[in-house]
Design brief:
Layout: E1 5-6, H1 13-16, E2 21-22, E3 26-31, H2 37-49, E4 54-59, H3 64-73, H4 79-84, E5 87-91, H5 99-102, E6 106-107, H6 114-128, E7 130-136, H7 149-162, E8 166-172, H8 183-188, E9 191-200, E10 203-213, E11 223-228, E12 231-234, E13 238-242, E14 247-251
Parallel strand pairs: 3-8, 3-9, 4-5, 4-7, 5-6, 7-8
Antiparallel strand pairs: 1-2, 9-10, 10-11, 11-12, 13-14
Bound molecules: adenosine-5'-triphosphate (ATP) and magnesium ion.
Magnesium ion binds near residues 37, 38, 61 and 136.
């Protein structure tokens, strides 16, 4: 029987994943600052919405109002989907403070309380019948308490997978870090996608590599990608080669 997959709809990515993300997988999306993690997550959710799949975005890093504005820049207007009841934003950013926050339906006043967050998240998932969930970023939940990182991710995995969601957990790593967010979370996640930004001869080059994806084969190559005014485009037919002296892009 072919495995059930969720098509990300991000140009090039489903080819790299040999058809899409296996359903119920928890994917760690790791990368340094400005590598495109938030845009990737938003694009993944929006592509589900236009196909009638419910989605939830857990906002820990940016104001929900700012996120809606950013998404609208890419023509990903989520308001109609919120009104239709298939998209929900879980506000873990404002702490319920401010005029704009009072208009949010799902507010977590204390995001350091993971159990409280999970209660609100579960409610949002059920309300919109979410098939896709993005947490931006999961690192925020254990930044000051690295010892609990694995248990937080395992708890999220049980809940999200149990409710039938295919999820992206954004993981922040520093510019120089080679890993994906620490051993605890790296092994707990079903998949790891890493986004990179490297300076080559005075120019920044974006690339993506799928490090692991349980339940499927996938490209083992590093692919270049771009962020355009329509979102991320990955070139599955091109590969980025690192060598000690230079980085080159070649067509497969
Ligand atoms: N309309 C656009 N066209 C092209 N590139 C864009 C556009 N909007 C944003 N970008 C690029 O995307 C980057 C931001 O991407 P994003 O917010 O997804 O990064 P991030 O990985 O979430 O970073 P952080 O960890 O700091 O939150 C910007 O630095 C810019 O280079
Ligand atoms: Mg971000």
């Amino acid at each position: 029987m072919p495995i059930d997959r969720v098509k990300t709809g991000i140009p090039g990515l489903d080819e790299i994943l040999h058809g899409g993300v296996p359903r119920r997988n928890i994917v760690l999306l790791a990368g340094g600052p400005g590598t495109g993690k938030s845009i990737f997550g938003q694009q993944y959710l929006y592509n589900g919405l236009v196909n009638g799949e419910g989605g939830v975005l857990v906002a820990l890093e940016e104001h929900p109002v700012q996120i809606r504005l950013n998404m609208a820049q890419f023509k990903w207007n989520v308001r109609p989907f919120e009104e239709k009841g298939i998209f929900a934003m879980v506000d873990c950013f404002t702490g319920g403070i401010g005029e704009a926050a009072r208009r949010e339906k799902y507010v977590v006043k204390d995001p350091t309380d993971v159990h409280l967050l999970i209660d609100v998240l579960k409610e949002a998932i059920k309300d919109v019948d979410a098939k896709r969930v993005v947490i931006d970023s999961v690192s925020t939940l254990y930044l000051t308490k690295p010892a609990i990182a694995r248990s937080v991710v395992m708890l999220l995995k049980r809940v999200l997978s149990g409710l039938g969601c295919t999820s992206i957990l954004v993981s922040q790593v520093s510019v120089t870090e080679r890993g994906f967010g620490g051993p605890g979370v790296e092994h707990a996640a079903d998949g790891i996608i890493r986004l990179d930004l490297d300076e080559v001869e005075g120019e920044l080059v974006r690339s993506l590599i799928v490090w692991k994806m349980r339940g499927t084969s996938h490209s083992m190559r590093r692919h270049p990608f771009e962020i355009t005014d329509r979102g991320i485009i990955i070139y599955s037919d091109k590969v980025v080669k690192y060598s000690s002296r230079r980085i080159g892009i070649s067509v497969l």
